[in-house]
Amino acid sequence: MSIRIYDNMSRRKKEFVPVNSDYVGMYICGMTVQDKPHIGHMYASIAGDTMRRYLEFRGYGVRYVYNFTDVDDKIIQRANDEGISWKDVAQRNIDAYFKYAQLLGIKAASVYPRASEHIQEIIELVGRIMSKGYAYESGGDVYFAVEKWPSYGSFSGRKLDELRAGARVEPGEKKKNPLDFALWKAAKEGEPYWESPWGNGRPGWHIECSAMSMKYLGESFDIHGGGQDLIFPHHENEMAQSEAATGKRFANFWVENGLVNLTGEKMSKSTKHFFSVEDICAEVDPETLKFYLLSSHYRSPVEFSRERMDKAEAALGRLKNAMRNAAVATGNLDPGEPVPPGEELSLATAEAEKRFVEAMDDDFNSAKALGHLFDLARTINKQIEAGIPAGTGAAVRAAAAKLRELGAVLGIFWKDEHGDEELPDEVTALVGQRESARRNKEWDRADELRLKIEKMGFLVEDRPKGPVVRKKTG
RNA sequence: GGCGGCAUAGCCAAGUGGCUAAGGCGACGGUCUGCAAAACCGUUAUUCACCGGUUCGAAUCCGGUUGCCGCCUCCA
Question: Which of the nucleotides lies closest to A261 (Cα–C1')?
Answer without folding.
Answer: B69
